[in-house]
Amino acid sequence: HISVFAFSLENFNRTNEELNDLYEILKSKIHEFLINMYLQIYPIRRDFLKNSGIRIKVIGDLTFFGPSFQRTCENLCELTAENNRCNLNIAVCYTSQHELMKCAQRIINSPSNHSISVRDIELDLLENSIAPVDLLIRTSGETRLSDFLIWQSSHAYIQFSKSLWPEFGFYEFLSMILKFQINFQHVKELMNTRNNLISDS
C-alpha cells in the first residue's frame, strides 16, 4: 500500500482563491489520470498501470466536492479494481478526526448492539479506508502529521524530510526505505503487539 495526502478538509479554512486553485489542480490531475491512462490517449501509460497491477482507491468524504467529482473518482477506482499487486490510496477531503467520527457513526448505527471495541474500529477502517501504516514520510520540513492516518500510523516508523513534496526524489526516498529496513524488526514487533491487542479486544 502507498498512500498520499492530496487534499485535507482543513484546506477549506483557506481563502476562496487558494481553495479554488487547489481544487482545480486536484481535479485536473484526477481527470488526467482517468483520461490519459485509460481512454487510450497514452496507451503506454495506461498499460504501465495495468501491467504493474496498481489499484487506485480514493479515501475521504467526497461529498464536499459534489457528484461530478465523486463520479470521476469512482470511475478511476472501478477501472483499476481488478489490479492486485499494489494499492495506491489517494486521500481527498480527508482528516483522521473526520474519518474516525464517520467510523464511530457507522458502528453505532450497525445492527450489532454492543460497545465499540478497538477491533470494531480496525475492521471498519480496513473496509472503508486503508490498512495500518508501516512507514510514514512527512515532507516540507514540518514535524507534525497534519491529522493524516493517525489511527493507522500508531505504530508506524515516521521520517521527516525538509524537501517540499514536488522536490522529494528517488534517492531521498530510497534512503528512507533503507532506514526503515534497518528498523523493520522493531516495527514488526510493535505491529504484532498491536494485532494481539486487537484480537483480544
Automatic annotation (TrEMBL):
GO terms for molecular function: ditrans,polycis-polyprenyl diphosphate synthase [(2E,6E)-farnesyl diphosphate specific] activity. InterPro entries: UPP_synth-like, UPP_synth-like_CS, UPP_synth-like_sf. The keyword Transferase applies. It comes from the Eukaryota. It catalyses: n isopentenyl diphosphate + (2E,6E)-farnesyl diphosphate = a di-trans,poly-cis-polyprenyl diphosphate + n diphosphate. The keyword Transport does not apply. Belongs to the UPP synthase family. This is Alkyl transferase.
